[in-house]
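hey so u asked for the seq, here:
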Amino acid sequence: MKIGINCYPTFGGSGAVAAELGIELARLGHCVHFISYGLPFRLSDYSKNISFHEVEVMSYPLFRYPPYTLSLSVKMSEVIESEKLDILHVHYAMPHATSAYLAQQIVGQDKIKFITTLHGTDITFVGNHHSFYKITKFSIENSNGVTCVSNFLKKSTAETFSIKEDRMRVIYNFVDTDKYKKTHESIDREKEKMNEFLGKRFLGKDDLVISHISNFRPVKKIQNIIKAFCKISQNVSARLIFVGDGPDVSLAKMMLEKLKLSDKVCFTGLQEDIVPVLNISDLYMLPSKNESFGLSALEALSCSVPVVGTKNGGLPEVVSDGECGFLVDPDNIEAISDAAIKILSDSKLKSNMSEAARERALLFDREKIIPQYLNYYNEVLNYV
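ran it, structure tokens below
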């Protein structure tokens, strides 16, 4: 099958899922064509059966804002015709589904069908904004197929845009459990490697490690992680590792200085390979305001790391509360810190949750999820 995939190439859940999906489809022998303004961040190496088509955006004084949506539509139509694509799969409703609809009109509806995968903020934030509501609703309704990454998101989409739930299919995000797993190397050596990477003696032999990976947007509630860590560090010998970058990084560093916690927290910046961080982690924290799925939490579970996360949104579909972690109110600092301390201070509980975390992640293994996408592609293509 010849499959076109469109996504945002930057760090984030939707781009990661789209890139990993393309990699897996190519591994199975399908020809995958990525269409975007930049190479997706997890496609750093040459891969057989994968091609990249860059969207060129015209820079012209008349345009205050370059018309990326139109440029993307043109590139999509070109790739559809030149590569004779069987199906186009776009990730994120705005503006990708809109561009796909325009491309379909350019080449003819009988020549291509497109599927839109909704990931979260494209529905709960961007699409719900009054300036984008109508075009988002129109684009979803005119997609030949729609998938949501969780039942929560499916229900939210139905309620927000008055779209029938039977028009949408839930296909969970997935993880490569062969890649995301604990290594056989000793934890002491793994910590030494991290110290070498950081260029300082940050982790001690007996330190417990808490990690968080995100794009540091306000929805991630970074300040609440720091407030909770203030109490956690008073009860257990712990270190906090932040991975990623975004608008709230500066605020986080200022908070840490005021709380005199800077020596116990480090920022690694953007990292393509997060397995080394997860391999030394004893706990992963994701107390976001809302998570439509929580891909980073799933990757942590796959590495046998218990999760303390939000009980809001789709994360309860990923993390089994009380089994492989705890789910709490993201604004309840006491609940966040108490849940973390409970896990970190009880070695038996932490061990049991680590085993349960890995078992839970296996339910979302790529071998279970990728066939669901392929079956849906065939279903949409055969739909009359």
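The first helix runs from residue 13 to 27. The domain at 187-362 is CATH 3.40.50.2000 (Rossmann fold).
lmk if thats what u needed
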